[in-house]
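Re: [ENG-882] Designed sequences occasionally contain unexpected residues at chain ends

Forwarding the minimal case from QA. Structure tokens:
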């Protein structure tokens, strides 16, 4: 890949307010994937010039504090922590990022208003994930430095609107930079996101198959083998819709939802399911969260090559169109 000569050009064309805000070289965030985005993945992405993000998920705070400390040893570049606001440990996690001197916090699955003053007083840049225009505006009013507009193409906990529809509307509605997420895994997606007005992209599923990603090899293989219609959203009836790759667990979930099974029974089915997939490689009864774009992810690569390849391709496309 002839990147050596292109490197400077990439930097120039793709620089945005997001790079300046966070002091990163390239406008690419690595999406926070619960139980998957650890020190290994986040530090590799940050070292390569993007923004690596450790996923808090539902883990106890000391588990994530250890990942933060490991990341600080592995890179001196900026990295972030994602706080999943449905977690019972969200309050502890909110304090931990202040104690550990984390510079960037992204949030998911809720509104982080009550932590904003504390984070701001510690100089933390706060970037919530938003699934709608109204929520984006509310986040900005409460002090968000930027927002991640995430379409329903994403893996994990999802909203209703597609990236194509959500991103330009959020761009029009707020004056802070917008990061596009959901369905982006190559340079075409990056270029499209920039055309919609985004100033950076967040990429999850493609980084899942990176060499530095410690997820079970079976999980990587399932993503690498996925086709366009291989994901499904379950949990709409419980108010917590989650996109996963189809398997025996998701089929059971769909069946139970169709007959109106009680929420408790559905939630019970999900207990421990993510660990089954991520840690033990159980591709039938584990929860294999992945985005619709899994079908386009077809090789294992280093984080550095993923970032440079995506930007190089985006750069070429944008140059072709003037
Ligand atoms: O957070 C995500 N995706 C996630 S979190 C996660 S961990 C998990 N583990 C087990 C079960 C469920 C989740 C896996 N995937 N994406 C960001 C996201 N945030 N998507 C949608 C939202 C969102 C929804 C509502 C953000 C804000 C919001 O606001 C509600 C309010 O109160 O204003």
């Amino acid at each position: 890949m002839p990147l050596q000569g292109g490197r400077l050009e990439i930097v120039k064309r793709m620089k945005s307010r997001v790079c300046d805000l966070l002091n990163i070289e390239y406008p690419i965030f690595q999406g926070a994937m619960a139980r998957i985005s650890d020190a290994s993945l986040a530090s590799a992405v940050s070292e390569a010039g993007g923004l690596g993000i450790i996923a808090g998920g539902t883990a106890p705070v000391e588990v994530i504090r250890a990942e933060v400390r490991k990341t600080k040893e592995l890179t001196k570049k900026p990295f972030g922590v994602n706080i999943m606001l449905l977690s019972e440990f969200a309050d502890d996690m909110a304090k931990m990022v202040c104690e550990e001197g984390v510079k960037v916090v992204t949030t998911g699955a809720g509104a982080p208003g009550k932590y904003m003053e504390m984070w701001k007083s510690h100089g933390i840049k706060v970037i919530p994930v938003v699934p709608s225009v109204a929520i984006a505006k509310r986040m900005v009013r409460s002090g968000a430095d930027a927002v991640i507009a995430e379409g329903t193409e994403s893996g994990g906990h999802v909203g209703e609107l597609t990236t194509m529809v959500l991103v330009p509307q959020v761009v029009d509605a707020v004056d802070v930079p917008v990061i596009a997420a959901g369905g982006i895994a190559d340079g075409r997606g990056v270029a499209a996101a920039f055309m919609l007005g985004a100033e950076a992209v967040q990429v999850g599923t493609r980084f899942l198959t990176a060499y530095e990603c410690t997820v079970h090899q079976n999980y990587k293989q399932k993503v690498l083998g996925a086709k366009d219609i291989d994901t499904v959203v379950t949990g709409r009836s419980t108010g917590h819709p989650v996109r996963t790759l189809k398997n025996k667990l998701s089929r059971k979930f769909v069946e139970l939802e169709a007959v109106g099974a009680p929420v408790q029974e559905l939630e019970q089915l999900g207990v421990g399911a993510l660990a089954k997939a991520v840690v033990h490689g159980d591709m039938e009864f584990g929860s294999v969260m992945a985005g619709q774009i899994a079908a386009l992810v077809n090789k294992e690569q280093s984080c550095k090559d993923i970032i440079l390849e995506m930007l190089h391709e985006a750069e070429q496309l944008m140059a072709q169109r003037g």
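QA comment: On inspection the terminal residues look reasonable. The pocket of TUI is lined by residues 34, 57-58, 84, 108-111, 129-131, 135, 150, 156-159, 240, 242, 274, 289 (CB under 6 Å). Proposing we downgrade this to a documentation issue.
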